[in-house]
From TrEMBL:
Belongs to the glycosyltransferase 8 family. SUPFAM superfamilies: Nucleotide-diphospho-sugar transferases. This is Hexosyltransferase. Keywords: Cell wall biogenesis/degradation, Glycosyltransferase, Golgi apparatus, Transferase. PANTHER family: GALACTURONOSYLTRANSFERASE 13-RELATED, GALACTURONOSYLTRANSFERASE 4-RELATED. The lineage of its organism: Eukaryota, Viridiplantae, Streptophyta, Embryophyta, Tracheophyta. GO terms for biological process: cell wall organization.
Length: 94
């Protein structure tokens, strides 16, 4: 790569730098190991989410926000302790 090109190597996130670090040693893995897009893809297949080992709410529609996709919210809220004073003070949606 030409480091003097004044071009941005990647946008926000960690995947592109990881690809550089492991260049030549990257292998495809099953998508269920890191299911992303849950914060911007409204038409996500619920069965795929259920099978996901790791789900990633990237994008703007985080499940704890009013703009979050309601059909995906239960995958996040089942892990939230709503009895916690800290959580209650954060006004996180149930």
């Amino acid at each position: 790569m030409n480091l003097k090109s004044n071009l941005t190597l990647w946008k926000l996130g960690t995947l592109p730098p990881a690809l550089i670090a492991f260049r030549g040693h990257v292998h495809p893995i099953d998508p269920s190991w890191h299911m992303l897009g849950l914060g911007y893809q409204n038409k996500t297949n619920i069965e795929n989410v259920k099978k996901g080992a790791v789900i990633h709410y990237n994008g703007q529609s985080k499940p704890w926000l009013e703009i979050g996709f309601e059909h995906l919210r239960p995958f996040w809220t089942k892990y939230v302790n709503y009895t916690s004073d800290f959580i209650r003070n954060c006004h996180i949606l149930e």
